[in-house]
Amino acid sequence: MWETVCYLIILILACYGIYYLVQDLFRLFRHLPGPPVSMLVVMRNRAVDVEYLMRRLASWRKYQWVNLDVVVVDDGSEDDTANILRGLQANLSFRLVTLEPESPPEHPFRKDRALLTGLLYCHNALVWVVDLRKLPQGLLAEKVFRVFFCQGWR
């Protein structure tokens, strides 16, 4: 009788050890979420490819291991960029900040008004800045996506 009890205790302890071993192995392979990151996208006059860029960004966000918060700043666009972004905001998750077009800057710090305003709307300590104003208008949206979005966190 005592031998049977000893065998049962050894079996229980062995199963208990195997259970914790399997848990430790799963912890090694499970990806923990990364730090929260704000992505600041500043754009002007991008009506041609803004919808493509934002939809591509939304699909790309699903596969990233970081918690990504997207803030989009429209820096006084003279085309339909702001209207397109407002329409996309209903379906996609991002915050939109629209600035009015201004006259030529009198002060040297006024030229980065969109960047500084966007930084005020970012809630996380880490900020990834994507300034689409500096890219030529003729650049295809696919190339913009490859350069800025695909080289991020994996």
Automatic annotation (TrEMBL):
Keywords, sorted A to Z: Membrane, Transferase, Transmembrane, Transmembrane helix
Organism: Desulforamulus putei DSM 12395
Record's protein name: Glycosyl transferase family 2
Pfam families with a match to the protein in the record: Glycos_transf_2
Molecular-function GO term, any one: transferase activity
Transmembrane intervals: 6-22
Residues covered by the Glycosyltransferase 2-like domain: 39-131
